[in-house]
Amino acid sequence: MGGCENQLRFQLGAALHLGIPIEQIREVFIQVQVFAGNARAFNAAAIFKSVADEFQKSE
């Protein structure tokens, strides 16, 4: 991702804690794919999966 993994984890976690639905966040990665490329979109989606899994376990 170019060194922004920690920031992405933080922002995704914050979005989940604010109540933004998981499906709505997933839709963002479609835009990431278009504008930043497949590799970055897949990496971001993998980070989101781990953040979402942790979030769901904590609820």
From TrEMBL:
Source taxon at top rank: Bacteria
InterPro entries per record: AhpD-like, CMD-like
Molecular function per GO: peroxiredoxin activity
Domain Carboxymuconolactone decarboxylase-like: 3-49
Pfam families assigned: CMD (PF02627)
UniProt-recorded name of the protein: 4-carboxymuconolactone decarboxylase
